[in-house]
Specification:
Strand content: 5-15%
Distance between the termini: 63 Å
Order of helices and strands: EEHHEHHHHHHH
Strand order of the largest sheet: 2-1-3
Number of strands: 3
CATH class of one domain: Alpha Beta
Shape: elongated
Mean pLDDT: 79
Largest sheet: 3 strands, antiparallel
CATH architecture of one domain: 3-Layer(aba) Sandwich
Structural class: mainly alpha
CATH topology of one domain: GIY-YIG endonuclease
CATH superfamily of one domain: GIY-YIG endonuclease
């Protein structure tokens, strides 16, 4: 059985600065880092600012070494002492593995992020960094498998459903249509994708009929 845990570093190819960390699952940890950095929500402000400044293509996730979970903090500290990573806020290896935060703490963390908006300049940089980024077929398969059997709670389904009631979907602007056309240029959907698109279209039409029926009954 292959070991999934180990020590890693995120390197900025531009200036050589790095971030050192440890993870029980290295593959999953990289995905979490990249997702937060792309969304501009990474908890490490130094790494996030560097990402926004240099762009995604300048960063590389490198596995330093694999080890058992019991030795993660010990070896992470050794690597940190040797490399002296510029992006690490804490200079001592720490882990939140198994830590359970109180509901009050989680509520404060959530409230602290309410109303936070990325600047147009930051959003533009993040958009440019994602341009041309292609997801591999293996990654698509993993995402698909992870979503199998997952259902949204009923309150979210109801919220999404009723938020669109009575709304008329007008045609896209000329600029939007040009962007959609350019992004789809040369892209040929597979037979499986066309089948899914057909099913989704039928389901969408069915929902619209149900919504119109509900509006008619409510009037």
């Amino acid at each position: 059985m292959s070991i999934k845990s180990g020590i890693y570093k995120i390197i900025n190819r531009g200036d050589g600065h790095c971030y050192v960390g440890s993870a029980v699952n290295l593959t999953k940890r990289k995905c979490n880092h990249w997702q937060e950095l792309r969304n501009g929500t990474h908890r490490n402000i130094h790494l996030q600012r560097a990402w926004n400044k240099y762009g995604e293509e300048m960063f590389h996730f490198q596995v330093v070494g694999k080890c058992s979970t019991e030795r993660l903090l010990e070896l992470e500290q050794e690597v940190m002492d040797h490399l002296k990573p510029e992006y690490n806020i804490e200079k001592t290896a720490q882990s939140s593995l198994g830590v359970r935060r109180r509901a009050e703490t989680l509520a404060k963390m959530s409230a602290a992020n309410i109303g936070k908006h990325l600047s147009p300049k930051t959003r533009t940089k993040m958009s440019k960094a994602r341009m041309g980024h292609l997801v591999s077929q293996e990654t698509k398969s993993r995402i698909s498998c992870a979503l199998i059997g997952r259902k949204h709670p009923q309150w979210r389904i109801d919220k999404n459903r009723y938020s669109h009631l009575g709304k008329k979907r007008g045609p896209h602007s000329i600029e939007t249509r040009k962007k959609m056309s350019l992004s789809a240029e040369g892209r040929i959907p597979s037979a499986e994708t066309r089948i899914r698109m057909g099913i989704a279209q039928k389901a969408r039409q069915k929902r619209e009929l149900e919504q119109r029926h509900e509006l008619h009954l409510g009037s």
